[in-house]
Amino acid sequence: MDKAFVGEWAERLHTLLHGRFAAAELFCMEEVGSTNEFLKEKARDLPGEAVVLALSQTAGVGRRGHTFRTVPGEALHLSFLLRGQTSAAAPVSLTVGVAVRQALYSLCGAGFSLKWPNDVLAAGKKVCGILCETVPDGIICGIGVNLLSSPQFFEKQGLSHAVSVQMVKGSAPAAEALAAEIANVLETVLAADANTVLRLYAAHCSTLGAPVRVLGVSGEAAEGIADSITPQGELVVRTGAGRVTVRAGDVSVRGVNGYS
Ligand code: BTN
Question: Which pTM does this prediction carry?
């Protein structure tokens, strides 16, 4: 991809954006270590909000210290620098999940759900991961969507629980089209009140009602039925020993009958 192509790519993205994120600083790159890390370095010097889109990442970061591996050109690597989130709002990582699911639904049709706290699933497998990180005066929200990756790629990586949009739907939207749809939906969802966002999240969360195994950082495990989401974004699980409330950073939740 040459410089002219990256310029056209940025222009196409800019044309598709409206409102809040059309006014943000826009970075489109052929390659970057990580779009989240890029924004972390830039955040202090940027006056307002920013959007970063990259064709490839060489050091993609996932939740809980994992890496996020993709093939250049086969995934969406998108990060937002958001400013001025209020404490009355719904947890931002859940809000971003709601927006990504809605954007995928708009462009690709039905069949996408949310796995608590913030994976997006298609056909019961992970199609998108979201990583939100706090910086002074802002929040960076990174979104990685597997668009075109093949079953062979996931097999080689040992990611049997992952899938791409193309594998499930037969085709996938262009990265800049999905990036713009996510940005435009995100603007609306960020402006909604916390109850609306939490209701939307719960309505599309396939974890709720499913049997789950909760694995704590120190190796302890509990099994139960995922019951509800608290206003703080925690998951309430009904176990034999009563209700357990778990926070996203502290545990990993696995479906007992699959990845949900
Ligand atoms: C996870 O599922 O563990 C979260 C994965 C988040 C990946 C995205 S890709 C864009 C942004 N840049 C990164 O380095 N990570 C996020």
Answer: 0.94
